[in-house]
Structure formats: structure tokens, C-alpha cells
Specification:
Helix content is 34%, strand content 17%. It is built from five helices and five strands. Strands 1-2-3 form a three-stranded antiparallel β-sheet, with helices on one face. It has a two-stranded parallel ribbon with strand order 4-5. Helix 3 crosses helix 4. It comes from Lentibacter algarum. It catalyses: a 4-O-methyl-thymidine in DNA + L-cysteinyl-[protein] = a thymidine in DNA + S-methyl-L-cysteinyl-[protein]; a 6-O-methyl-2'-deoxyguanosine in DNA + L-cysteinyl-[protein] = S-methyl-L-cysteinyl-[protein] + a 2'-deoxyguanosine in DNA. Its EC number is 2.1.1.63.
């Protein structure tokens, strides 16, 4: 099932399989509905309204164990805080470049906050929305914009 919703960063589509969210992609055109998709839509709207700091949704990260591990670490980064690819790499005992690739492969950006992961010397990339501009918007929304000045 897929459901699209408008956000300040563009239209996003949520995908549900087996009772869990499995993807969030920018783009739209889907109107399926389920309890989980409606709840995800409600929580995303609350996040953008400044009323929600942490998502509480059933998610399933499809991918390698490494992808799942990186997503699990990203999911623990608090609202308005950031970490570097290197910090996650050190925690997992892997190269920072591998963490960057796993961040880029995050199937649920926003819900699993890969926008909160930065490079050692700059923003790093972002695969959602219109790229780095969307990452900057999300960081400003969360009050982490002081890092950008």
C-alpha cells in the first residue's frame, strides 16, 4: 500500500508492507489507506507543525544487516542534534565512507533521520527531496541551523 502526502519539503509517498513502513520517497500520486499509513501521515504532519520530535511507527528496513545497523543508530539521534558519519563509523567499527553510503540508502528518510548525520567538514549529502537543500531545511526546522552558519 502507498499513500502520498504534501509536506513543506514536497510531496512524499509512504509505502507499507506487512504492517510496517518500508519506504518514504519524494513524489506522489498514491491514495491507499490503512491505520499505519494514516498514523504515519498524522505524525509527519505533527513533525512539520513542530509538535512531534520522535516518530513512533512500525518500520522495517529492507537491506543488509549493515544497512539495518546504520539505520538503527540513526534512529537514535535526538531531534535537533547531529552526529558525523565518522562518529557512527567508530561506533560500528567500519569506515566512514561505508556509513555515508548506508545513509544514502536509507529507505525511510525523515522517519529514520539521516538528515542529522553530517560530514566531518560539512553537510554531507542527502538523497531525499531536492538533496542538500532539503537536508538544510530539515536541520533548520529542528533548530540545528547554528551548525550551518
Amino acid at each position: 500500500m502507498k499513500r502520498s502526502l504534501d509536506t513543506p519539503t514536497g510531496t512524499v509517498t509512504l509505502s507499507e508492507e506487512g504492517g510496517a513502513l518500508v519506504a518514504l520517497e519524494w513524489g506522489g500520486g498514491f491514495e491507499d489507506s490503512s491505520d499505519l499509513l494514516r498514523e504515519a501521515e498524522r505524525q509527519i504532519a505533527a513533525y512539520f507543525a513542530g509538535e512531534l520530535r520522535a516518530f513512533e511507527l512500525s518500520v522495517s528496513v529492507r537491506g543488509s544487516q549493515f544497512q539495518q545497523d546504520v539505520c538503527a543508530v540513526m534512529g537514535q539521534i535526538p531531534f535537533g542534534e547531529t552526529v558525523t558519519y565518522g562518529e557512527i563509523a567508530k561506533q560500528l567499527g567500519v569506515p566512514a565512507q561505508a556509513v555515508g553510503q548506508a545513509c544514502g540508502g536509507n529507505p525511510l528518510p525523515l522517519v529514520i533521520p539521516c538528515h542529522r548525520v553530517l560530514g566531518a567538514q560539512g553537510l554531507g549529502g542527502f538523497s531525499g527531496g531536492v538533496g542538500v537543500e532539503t537536508k538544510v531545511w530539515l536541520l533548520k526546522h529542528e533548530g540545528a541551523a547554528g551548525l550551518l552558519i
